Amino acid sequence: MKRFLLVLGIAVAAIVPAAIFRFSGFRPNPVLDTAVFGVAVLAAGFMLSWGAEAAEKRISQGLILALVALVTVLPEYAVDMYYAYQAGKAPESNYVHYAAANMTGANRLLVGVAWPLMAILHWFRTRERSIRLATVNVVEIGFLLVASLYAFVIVLRNRISLVDTVVLIGIFGAYLWVTGRMPKVESGLEADDEPGPAAALATLSPARQWTWMGGLTIVAAAVILVSAEPFAESIVASGRVLRIDEFLLIQWLAPLASEAPAVVIAVLFVLSGRAEGGLTTMISDKINQWTLLVGMLPLAMSVGAGALTSMPLDARQHEEFFLTAAQSLFGVALLLRLRFNLVSAITLAALFSVQLVVAFIFREDAQRAIDALTMLAWVYLALAAVIFVTGAPSAWRVVSALRTAATRQRLEAAAPAGSGATAAAPKK
């Protein structure tokens, strides 16, 4: 518990400067402001992750991984919702571009950096060249596939509407419902082998655990709420001061700060011998950002506008969204065989690196950037098509096996209470 309190003290110390800046109105420099509020958002994200992680013993395995992924990316939601809200208030401003940039950057960082990191760390730790997923993980893969395919509907209509909000939130709700009903998987580790600082909370009584979890969540949420606006605005101002395209800063810098806690938790899963849990957390993270985060943008924009509205995608954002959807579909294809190997990880990381190089080289030539992003998106789609054709049969066998296991579990759960005595009777 002492170690946990020490780490918590460091997180609180990281939050204090942001509180002083926020409530005093002190803004010495946009770059310093970005650092101070970014660190506060990062610290709050870690506090959220500790509370969510401690809840793992209280909720079913598949559901808790989905909820941990949701809670730990609240900082990302706060920043993006602020941009979308401001876009609704001023539709002709750059805020609409900022909201789309933050969303596409966050999604592409997950697949292009976080997923490969899981496999590479697992290889360094065990020298195993792939992370094998359980049969039940086909649920995550299936829902990510549905969300990725639906994303192309948004690409074709060139806007994110409130209809998309309903559909995407519905997909996420169905995902939570199904994961809560899936059979549990043996992890091979003791129940008390929790990764990270939150392991200390497992030694407390249930009542004290819930108190700590609630307290961490409330404090972290408050910090995120008061820091989101100055953090988002300071990034824009920093780009102007440093003469760096603020679009690129918002697309890559803001998600780095807000995604870090979720990635660190996943890394701790891998380092504690639960590579499957780490990768599944990152997949769940991708699902909720590709459904809830995208779907809530027009909702936040409508609140800002005071009327129902959609989020338009201009030429650049159209291609950014198209590229994000294509990368997502390719990521799903790589998971079809329920394993994520080192070659897949390196391929995703390499293609993501190409995106960064293209964005930097053509940062002052929008049309060439759009053309390059479009070409890269078609590369993702071509690779995905090849893998889907070759991997579909094995994926269908996995789905059939999961359906059988789920049916068996429901039948066992529905068995009358007296059947246990019958089952326990000695055989003749």
Characterization of the model:
The protein is mostly helical and 428 residues long. The chain is 79% helix and 2% strand. The chain has 14 helices and 4 strands. The protein has helices spanning 2-24, 30-54, 61-72, 74-89, 95-126, 138-157, 162-181, 206-242, 246-271, 275-305, 315-334, 342-361, 366-414, 419-424; strands at residues 130-132, 159-160, 311-312, 339-341. The strands form 2 sheets. It has a two-stranded antiparallel ribbon with strand order 1-4. The protein has a two-stranded antiparallel ribbon with strand order 2-3. α2 packs antiparallel against α3 (61-72), α3 (61-72) packs across α10 (275-305) and α4 crosses α8. It is globular and about 60 Å long. The chain starts with a helix and ends with a helix. The model is unreliable at 186-192 and 416-428 (pLDDT under 50).
